[in-house]
Amino acid sequence: MNTQQYIQLENEYGATNYKPLDVVLTRAKGIWVWDVDGNKYMDCLSSYSAVNQGHCHPKIAATMHDQIDKLTLTSRAFRNDQLGLFYKELCDLTHSHMALPMNSGAEAVESCLKAVRKWGYRTKGIPEGQAEIIVCENNFHGRTITIIGFSTEKQYRDGYSPFTPGFKIIPFGDAEALEKAITPNTVAFLVEPIQGEAGIIVPPMGYLKQVREICTRHNIAMMTDEIQTGLGRTGRLLAEEHEGVEADLTMIGKALAGGFYPISAVLSNKEVLGVFQPGDHGSTFGGNPLACAVARTALKVLIEEGMIENAAKMGDYFMERLHAIKSPYVKEVRGKGLLIGVELYPEAGGARRFCQSLMGKGLLCKETHDNVIRFAPPLVITRDEVDWAAERIESVLTA
Ligand SMILES: *Cc1c(COP(=O)(O)O)cnc(C)c1O
After folding, report:
1. How far does the centroid of ligand 1 lie from the alpha carbon of residue 111, in Å?
2. This prediction's pTM
């Protein structure tokens, strides 16, 4: 079968909620992927940061092969010999007291929302049905009805009402707005350390520190969504470390299993996650031994192979190379570590055409919204490979 035939099958039988670039991939290794016609590309999206460790990392693959022959699913009706070790290793690494395993990022976010509401009712004495959660404009936290109900992106909400009440939206990066929005019924504030889907929006330095201080002073839970920014992407294990803060709850997902398996987790102090009693919350696949085994190795290689330090170094170098490009189309280059956005002027005719041209030159990336190109390669990229990417990006941005 050829590219057109694969695309035709997708178009004929698939729900049409995505509009991918017309490249059909069949194998991958590290930062490189190959299509069904044998063309090779550098992956500068990393499956939305789910393959930080590089595609098909051999050690993660070996763990997966091993575990598949031993035990894959027990449900939480019984225990398994991977979950406890996964908890301990994850909590040690992130200085958390407790963790809750789920599958997708959106489920981790939903789990947090449930936990902080219950925490508010049980420990803060907020009257039942009155809990308020503060969120930010231009947020992205997933696609469930509750989550899109507090999105400010028109298309994400359109046609899906009615929505879950109890959310208040404030501007991102504005600590004063947070302070003003807090009422006696506020239980929590949910924020991305860098807004990824909104176009790699980096808040002012000191913002998270101020947020931490305000949340502590008002006794509300600070929740950081690190599903995209976490696990080394920005050059630290968690992006909140850049400001030396620890949230009360942190959601991670995406790269937690290096792209091999869907697994997400809520990291928390004992106080908030501790509100869950048996039966309060659950998931058939959450905490399954295959996910846990794979995630343990995915975390291990992230640390042992120096990927986080490499993300910091290569991120700085990549940004330096991008800043040096003199293009009439580029409005701003921004980001942290290997989460980089190049914003184009609206007159440039949209980011998608540049992504299309880059594909023609062997580099895969994706626009986010209309005018931002996101560059987020796997964290194993080398200096020579950054040079290779920068040359191609320069040539399309100056054409
Ligand atoms: C991707 C993402 C999610 C949702 O994760 P899914 O696994 O797609 O449900 C939530 N928050 C952020 C910041 C994300 O980037």
Report:
1. 13
2. 0.98
